[in-house]
Structure prediction request, 730 residues.
Amino acid sequence: MLLSELPRHVPASVESVVDARLRDPIGRRLRELGFVKGEPVRVVTSGPFGGDPLVIEIGTSRFALRRAEAARIRVHADAASASTKVQGKA
Amino acid sequence: MNAVAANPQDDPFRIALVGNPNCGKTALFNRLTGSRQKVANYAGVTVERKEGRFVTPGGRHVQVLDLPGAYSLVATSPDEEITRDLCLGKFASEESPELMVCVVDATNLRLHLRFVLELRRLWQPMVVALNMIDVARRRGIVVDRAALEAQLGMPVIETVAVRRDGAKALLTALDATARTPNSLLPVTTGRRWSDGPDEGQLFDAPDSDESLHGTVRDILRAAVRTPVDAQAIDDRIDRVVLHPALGLAILAVLLFLMFQAVFAWATPLMEGIETLIGALGSAVAGALPEGVLRSLLVDGIIAGLGSVLVFLPQILILFLFILALEESGYLPRAAFLLDRLMVGAGLSGRSFIPLLSSFACAIPGIMAARTIGDPRDRLVTILVAPLMTCSARLPVYALLIGAFIPQRTVWGVFNLQGVTLFGLYVAGIVSALGVAYAMKWLRRDRTREHALMMELPSYRVPHLRDLAIGLYERGMIFLKRVGGVILVLTVLLWALSSFPAPPEGVTGAPIHYSFAGQLGRALQHVFAPIGFNWEISIALVPGMAAREVAVGALATVYSLSATDADAALHLAPVIAAQWSMATAFSLLAWFVFAPQCLSTLATIKRETNSWGVTLGATAYLFALAYIASFFTYRVALALT
Prediction:
């Protein structure tokens, strides 16, 4: 599933970022911002006009991504919505 | 090695603050340097260069550079290019720092440590400033500093930029740092680039992000404990602020307050400045004999000074709001709410606040366009900002509407004069959107997508000290860089309007015989097709200084006493009797578009650092003004 299709507040994990073209600077920047395999991700809300852009929570950061940007990110919804935000030692 | 310099001030220890946007870098810079800062641009680009100096408790002189915030060494904006080039030692006109201080936000290490790891590969002396550690503690985030140090292989120093002694540990560390090239090199077994990778290597680095983020995850697991609800406050605020209906309502209220403040607080200050300048002018006029010197001082220099200073209250109030909105983390959220609307016109959500500010005055609007990261979006915003109806147009509109539009009620409730004024505002907005759309279409480039990818940082209470420093810097930039130009141009326009003096014994306004008068009468041939008579043509010349000056100039041309307060009052019946309706409408249309105000053009030059852009903006605005006036005049002639 693409991140742009993920319903709101459904905990999911990033699978990969698919570049829209060779050496896609946007795809690269998304990976730099932490959209890499296994990172917990969630759609927080969407913009008031046409549902664009989206507010995405990834780890401890929030980003506004336009749908075209979010559509580069493949995700899968987490089976058990276990507390995905815990990181670190017990 | 570094033999003791004769004067330690001449050979300061050069450090640079580097880090992600929103890591609190600038607050730390303010904490270290106080007001001993120099703000300029990097050579050849319009990226702000902030340098400061301070002396450590141990007596070491330090020169610190606040590098633009960057997410990565693979730059996607001019700001990031500067940071990359300086870190890689490839910036021609700047020496690389002797020590990099990587600033990270302790509440967002997952994002910020990646950049630290990327910088670590450069294998240069560096330390990490673990900033906002107080906020992290309050949110229950536990950072094991020693473990983090061990993991990163470099010193980690806790800082709280907004607290008085919050940089003490960093200062102590700077005192203890030996000034040899090999001290504080990161201890790393990982990949390193010793002599600076090129752009391609950086971009294609095979182990780039999966592994960097993997390392970050390992480090976090070993050194940081984050509770599940660390972002709970942000989440709660965002639920309201980003809500489709509530969020827009809050934005509307904030903007309303901002405008109220500009007009309610700035107007008395502006009037005060005008009164003071007027009093100064009268005092000087009284002390000097009539003549060229007196005229130069009173009508040239003091009036010019007045036209610079009178902008200052609006600029400072607008910037106070913009800085507070930015510091608090609200500005990117406002951009998020409005992005879709602005994209339709070829702009981005980030353009909204600068354009809105331009309703007060285009100068702070154009200066605020610095908050737009994307160079194309920023340029388009700067170019359309002068189309927003600034407050200086109001006296002109008021004069013409008062003289030509009858006080009549239309459609039951509306006043025709009010409807006309509203129409003029709408004309400005619609044409700005049209121009932005046209520019997007003209400069379309399918290979380059203009991305949003905008971080919504954690909410913070703006710190008064940082606001004050930011405000002071904006004010000084305006006074120094723009004010000088305005002053020179005002004096120039004074000279044009005063020389040569009228021949002995003639009646009529002296301006008629001056260069401005001759220029105006020459321009009359150009302006005749759009219905301007020679009086208007002359008034437009001194009106270049600022739009509202045209009202006073018209009064002068019609030989009325041009004491500003009631010039318009006496002028309205005169022009109502002498001008045709079509001429009046044509002049209104002219003022919607014409780049009358040289201060705006000076600001565009300063902010784009390009004569091409400045001349282009001037040309397109004049062309639009002429075309709009031409059609308005012809249509009005045909109808009346």
Observations:
- Chain B has 26 helices and twelve strands.
- The longest strand of chain B covers residues 48-55.
